[in-house]
Specification:
The protein is α+β, with helices and mostly antiparallel strands and about 180 residues long. It has one domain. The chain contains six helices and five strands, in the order ααβββββαααα. The strands form two sheets. The protein has a three-stranded antiparallel β-sheet, with no helix packed on it. α1 packs across α5. The longest helix has about 35 residues. The chain is globular.
């Protein structure tokens, strides 16, 4: 009889756990939306009413087929930043950064990342928490303030969206750094 009660008690918890998972996904979607992740990580296209997000490539980062030409010259100060028409490539004093693929694709996105990898990236401002620096315009100084629960919800949501195979290029150094090499 003890085993029966133990199994019954365990089964009684199952619906509660499913609701908690749904609540975490809803919270993650809310945080991704309000943090503006789509603003840079979802490519823009020209639609019937002008520029709009291409939601068929939601959060897939800079389109791999869009090869950016070298920037001939940045505008004079006080202008410092130039963005691609897709809003997925950014050039400034740091060089050129390309927004990452945040979808769960295992080869080109976050599909092989762990929650620890994700948290470490946001907390340290370094790829996988130990690699290259995460470059502007990514607002790492602000995102470091997310709680562990927030980051867990964001990561859970990102793992739940459709995977998009899209290999984003590596960042490019600033022209002065290239000339010095």
């Amino acid at each position: 009889m003890n085993a029966f009660r133990l199994i019954a008690a365990a089964l009684a918890l199952v619906p509660t756990l499913a609701v908690a998972d749904d609540a975490q996904l809803v919270r993650g979607q809310y945080l991704v939306t309000t943090a503006g992740c789509n603003d840079c990580h979802t490519p823009m296209i020209v639609g019937a009413n002008g520029p709009e997000r291409d939601m068929t490539r939601m959060l897939s980062g800079h389109p791999e087929q869009l090869v950016m030409p070298p920037l001939s010259a940045r505008p004079d100060a006080p202008w410092e930043t130039v963005a691609s028409t897709t809003f997925t490539a950014w050039s400034g004093p740091w060089g050129v950064s390309f927004t990452a693929n945040l979808t769960p694709d295992p080869d080109t996105g976050l599909g092989r990342w762990t929650l620890k990898n994700f948290k470490d990236t946001i907390r340290t401002g370094r790829h996988l928490g130990r690699g290259r620096e995460i470059l502007p315009p990514m607002p790492i100084p602000m995102y470091r303030h997310f709680t562990d629960e927030d980051l867990e919800a964001i990561f859970a949501y990102l793992q739940s969206i459709p995977a998009v195979k899209n290999r984003v290029p590596e960042p490019l150094p600033p022209p002065a750094a290239v000339a010095a090499q």
